[in-house]
Amino acid sequence: QRDVEAKLDIAAVEGSASSLTVPSLALDFNGQIGSSALKGQLATPIKANLKEGVWELAKVAGNLSLGRPDTALKVRLSGAATVNPAKQRVAVTGLDAVATGSYDTLKGLDLKFSGNVGADGIKNEYTADKVTLQAKGTLDRDAFTALFQAPKLRVTPSKAEGQAVTGAVSVKGPQRDVEAKLDIAAVEGSANSLSIPNLKLELLSIIA
Q1: E strands of 50-198, at which residues?
Q2: 157 DSSP 8-state letter
Q3: Mean pLDDT (whole number) for 24-31
Q4: pLDDT tens by residue, 124-152
Q5: Label partner for 47 (CA 20 to 30 A): which of 6, 16, 34, 68?
Q6: Count of Cβ atoms closer than 10 Å to residue 161 Cβ
Q7: Cα–Cα distance between 112 and 98 in angstroms, integer?
Q8: d(Cα 112, Cα 100) in Å, to the nearest integer?
């Protein structure tokens, strides 16, 4: 069962034939998903260059809560974005997302994600900078931790370059004990022909 209501509030629009400014756009939503209450907000100012087709969301802030107030899964995010739909470009900078709480069989989640990402659909160019993911919690009866880091990565049809990517996952429970570590050396080549000088994967698994 899903029952969600949303309210959109747009501050007085300013601009001309070539530019548009919305000092504040706010979206509030609440409702019910199954037996869990849903509540959230998303807000950002908007500045558009109508001649170039570029939309700037200089300060995006959002939060979401799903479940009972005392144990709800809560998500908070902030960052900035620049979008050009016609040229299929999007860039997200200063992204900072945090998720905590519990939902269904997921308990005690503590997740943090940060970094800068971008994509150019026409040029087939993708970038990641200072991307970090950290997470821990319990799923069913298994405790888990995870870490992923991509300091710098750029992939185009003609060239791929970046620094080493690392990751680690640990799952411990009554019937399983898994640890995995990933280490990918600096990427070289192109989107059509990637070269990884060194890839190291360590895996330790004990399943009862």
Answers
A1: 54-66, 73-84, 89-103, 106-120, 125-139, 142-155, 160-162, 165-172, 176-184, 188-189, 194-195
A2: S
A3: 94
A4: 999 999 999 999 999 988 999 999 999 99
A5: 6
A6: 14
A7: 5
A8: 9
Cα distances from 120 to residues 87, 94, 154, 156, 206, in angstroms, run 8, 18, 11, 9, 43
Reference 193, options 150, 163, 156, 153; nearest CA is 156
What DSSP designation does 141 have? Answer: T
Q: What is the pLDDT of residue 113?
A: 97
User: Taking the mean position of all CA atoms in its chain, how far away is CA 94?
Assistant: 11
Q: Which two tokens stand for residue 112?
A: 């943090």
d(C-alpha 107, C-alpha 80), whole Å: 30
Tokens of 49: 């260059």
Residues 59-91: pLDDT tens digits? 999 999 998 877 899 999 999 999 999 999 999
Strand partners, 173: none
Structure-block tokens of residue 110: 């503590």
